[in-house]
Amino acid sequence: MKKILCLICCLVAFPAMAIDGTQILEKVDRNLEPESYEAYRQLIDIQPDGSKKEYVLYTMKKGRDKVVALFLSPPSDKGRVTLRLGDNMWLYIPDVGKPIRITSLQSVTGSIFNNADILRIDYTAEYNVEAAEEKLDSILLSLKAKTGEVAYDRLKMWVDKKALLPTTIEAYAASGLLLKTLHFKNIKDFGGGIKRPATLETDSPLYKGYKSVMLWAGIKKTNFRDEVFTLNYLPRIQELRK
Predict the structure, then answer these.
(1) I need a labelling partner for 188 at 20 to 30 A (CA). Which of 1, 39, 74, 217 fits?
(2) Correct CATH for 18-240 of 3.90.550.10, 2.50.20.10, 3.40.50.2300, 3.40.50.1000
(3) pLDDT at residue 204, as a whole number
(4) Looking at beta carbons, which pairs linking 134-140 to residues 24 or more positions away fall under 8 Å?
């Protein structure tokens, strides 16, 4: 009996440590992507009738909030470039010759993936962690947008405890409406210490029967000059492909 009482006293004196949701989210960001990297991505939009439209993008990211993506295919989109600096986004079309402002909720591909998904910056740059709840084999993070410019007002992110990578994210509007669900699959070792999901699928109750898939390839740590992430540099982005 004395041993049991002592154990109870210890549990009361030393309660389980609270989960640091912000620290977990920071680790999720770095496990998903190096702070600065280059990668190739294939975007596949699947229609209810099974038909598909595919895009290939060469992507570069620097820091927590600078992303640029060059369209390599299809031929109708080849040479287009999208740039994101924080909450600001632009689309450069060679035939137009100057950048056009775009918004996070728009989609340059016309898919369920919007521009915020295609030009994603660090989650910690856009969201505060409001709650972290431990589940059986995962941690559920409840995230709230830092500003009204963010594409989704709230996120529910299920994070694998061991890998510290997201498995599912539900994205909500300020009204509480579920906008889409993101599914992270097929964890792959890309080398250089990068081990992350190679497949991202999304579906939405607003687009019944539609699905969009993002496939990652060739991701590696790379350093870029700051001038690469400027409006004046957009016409020259293709020069950086090795």
Answers:
(1) 74
(2) 2.50.20.10
(3) 95
(4) 134/19, 137/161, 137/162, 138/167, 139/19, 139/21, 139/24
